[in-house]
Design brief:
- The structure is a single chain.
- By secondary structure, the protein is of the alpha/beta class.
- 43% of the residues lie in helices and 15% in strands.
- It contains eight helices and seven strands; from the N terminus they run βαβαβαβαβαβαααβ.
- It has a seven-stranded parallel beta sheet with strand order 3-2-1-4-5-6-7, with helices on both faces.
- The longest helix is centred in the middle third of the chain and has 29 residues.
- It is globular and about 50 Å long.
- Bound molecules: nicotinamide-adenine-dinucleotide (NAD).
- Nicotinamide-adenine-dinucleotide (NAD) binds next to helix 1.
Length: 251
Amino acid sequence: MISLFDLGGKTAIVTGASTGLGRGMTLALASAGADLVLVDHVECGGVADEVRKLGRPALPLTLDLSLDGSAAAAVESAIRGFGKVDILINNAGIIRRAPAVDFSEKDWDDVMTLNARTVFFLAQAAARDMRKRRYGKIINIASLLSFQGGILVPSYAASKGAVAQLTKALANEWASDGITVNAIAPGYMATNNTKALREDPLRSKAILDRIPAGRWGQPEDLQGAALFLASAASDYVNGHVLVVDGGWMAR
Ligand code: NAD
């Protein structure tokens, strides 16, 4: 059974790989044998070195994924480097916090562009290559705010709602090409994304009080879900949004 999770011979792109959940999922895929393309707008040489220490090649790409054409450029570079793309983890994402009445057009556009628009065009570019071999795994990183409205994060909630719907739309269209498209909805995880919440004693306590597991999630908590959805173990799983949240949504 363990071979179901083997990623030997597979090439994976992980966006937002320099830190947090992206770094954690990168190391999980490398441990399972994948070759890694690491895309980020900041340098990710450190994570590339960690991948190489695990015995796998790594290709770090510094690209601002909110720019037009960057999605296609990332996939083209991956194909130039490793010949193909088998796995795409659409993880790069940002959040902006402000009351809806004060929310700026820039904060709306920045979040929607990276979190939703780029997710679609990366999936499109990857699927064009995956279809040639009739095999591919696309994993979008959604959120609890794919289901809930959140507090002071209107563009983030809108973008993550879009990620969940896009996951289903693309899963329907590409299942017959051998490509699975699924999402992971992480709960409250201890990364840069949630630093402001963890530093606010009231919000931090309110959040912790609602998590049945009684703790913030760590990047390692996503590794099993990412490996499952990246591997043959999930070949008949299509359009699913897998919540990994210490029980928050069950509450
Ligand atoms: P993070 O802020 O630590 O990581 C985000 C990554 O995206 C970083 O590596 C960053 O450099 C990269 N990035 C940002 N803008 C970019 C751009 N323009 N081009 C390329 N890369 C860019 O946060 P994280 O928690 O690791 O977030 C990863 C994903 O998980 C995001 O999509 C986020 O919305 C989602 N998520 C996080 C949580 C949480 O609690 N931390 C919960 C649900 C969903």
